[in-house]
Known about the structure:
The protein is mainly alpha-helical. The protein is built from 7 helices and 2 strands, in the order αααββαααα. Among the domains are: 2-56, Winged helix-like DNA-binding domain superfamily/Winged helix DNA-binding domain (Arc Repressor Mutant, subunit A, Orthogonal Bundle); 60-101, no CATH class. 42% of the residues lie in helices and 8% in strands. α2 (12-19) packs across α3 (27-40). The longest helix has 16 residues, at 60-75. The termini are far apart.
Amino acid sequence: MNTLWGMREATVREIRDGLAVKLPRAYTTIMTIMDRLARKGVVERRKAGRSYIYRPQLSIDDARRQAMRQVVDHFFSGSTEAAVDFLESRGATVPQSLESAILPPAAPTFSPSPIDAASDAPILSSASPAPALADIPASIETPNDPHLPK
Length: 150
């Protein structure tokens, strides 16, 4: 993507040639990557003769924001505070605006629908943590089913 952002739009051959010095790759490898990015909507492609011309649909800032969100979601359970604490514990100076500029809040919590509200079952959201393992009963009654192990 860095190569394509620098070119604004390019064919697979132009992207491969732009990468050749730093990261030589086969034409088919670049073609596969670009095809996958097009199917995901990250790049737009249009037919030009026998090849496609690719153009980024995602800005550098948006790509960075998404990448940071994935890091926070996967390594810090969605907690921007935990990510900032981690960086600070490693000696990094983290500006106050980091959370709002780079790490936007997770998706909003949804209110229960009238159907869910009528139920006695707890409604989980990103605001309510999952039950701790200690809170789950050790033995759960199972129906007398001959297909289940005893």
